[in-house]
């Protein structure tokens, strides 16, 4: 990795701001830095000190900002809620998930029937589920059909089976990232060859 340059799959603080602004017009870089200083989000840093936000970090910020705006919760209470679960699995209720993802209850039920989303214990969902829903909403808006999404789910399930054959969790995480990058490169190569 080049010093000071973000890795793929991570976002700069400016990119995070761009993602949050449509939903939270008053958010600023200073606000994001303040929430970081308060321990509500913990982005990784490069050797040069640049912040590297993950998808989970962005969803964590959305959770914090929504809790402040919609439920008027103080930061101390929000921090306690966040600290009860790992940073990458902040749970939200079905109602909150629908509101934040901008889809209907019927659409969510259909995605669950198609195996594209699975509620966790107590019928709750994670920030990854929320990110998945937003991505699916964008894809369907571009014309992707249900059967295409089911094919993506099936491919992911095959990768999970393969990854589960490795016992070391760190190796599994690294391989998962490599699989994602390889998949992207193969799709791009296929598109170049067919054009």
TrEMBL record:
Q: What is this protein called?
A: MerR family transcriptional regulator
Q: Which residues form a coiled coil?
A: none
From the broadest rank down, the organism's phylogenetic lineage runs:
Bacteria, Bacillati, Actinomycetota, Actinomycetes, Pseudonocardiales
Stored SMART domains: HTH_MERR
Transcription: present as a keyword of the record? no
Q: Which domain of life is it from?
A: Bacteria
Q: Which UniProt keywords apply?
A: DNA-binding
Task: Tell me which residues make up the HTH merR-type domain.
Answer: 26-84
């Amino acid at each position: 990795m080049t010093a000071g340059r973000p890795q793929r799959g991570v976002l700069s603080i400016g990119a995070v701001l761009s993602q949050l602004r449509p939903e939270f017009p008053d958010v600023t870089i200073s606000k994001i830095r303040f929430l970081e200083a308060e321990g509500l989000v913990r982005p990784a840093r490069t050797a040069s000190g640049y912040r590297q936000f993950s998808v989970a970090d962005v969803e964590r910020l959305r959770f914090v900002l929504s809790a402040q705006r919609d439920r008027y919760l103080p930061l101390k209470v929000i921090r306690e809620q966040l600290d009860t679960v790992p940073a990458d699995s902040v749970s939200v209720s079905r109602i909150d998930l629908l509101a934040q993802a901008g889809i209907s209850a019927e659409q969510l039920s259909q995605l669950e029937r198609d195996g594209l989303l699975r509620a966790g214990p107590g019928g709750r969902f994670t920030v990854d589920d929320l990110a998945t829903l937003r991505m699916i909403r964008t894809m369907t808006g571009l014309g992707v059909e249900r059967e295409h999404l089911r094919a993506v789910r099936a491919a992911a399930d095959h990768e999970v089976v393969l990854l589960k054959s490795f016992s070391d969790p760190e190796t599994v995480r690294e391989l998962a990232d490599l699989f994602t990058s390889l998949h992207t490169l193969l799709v791009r190569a296929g598109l170049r060859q067919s054009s």
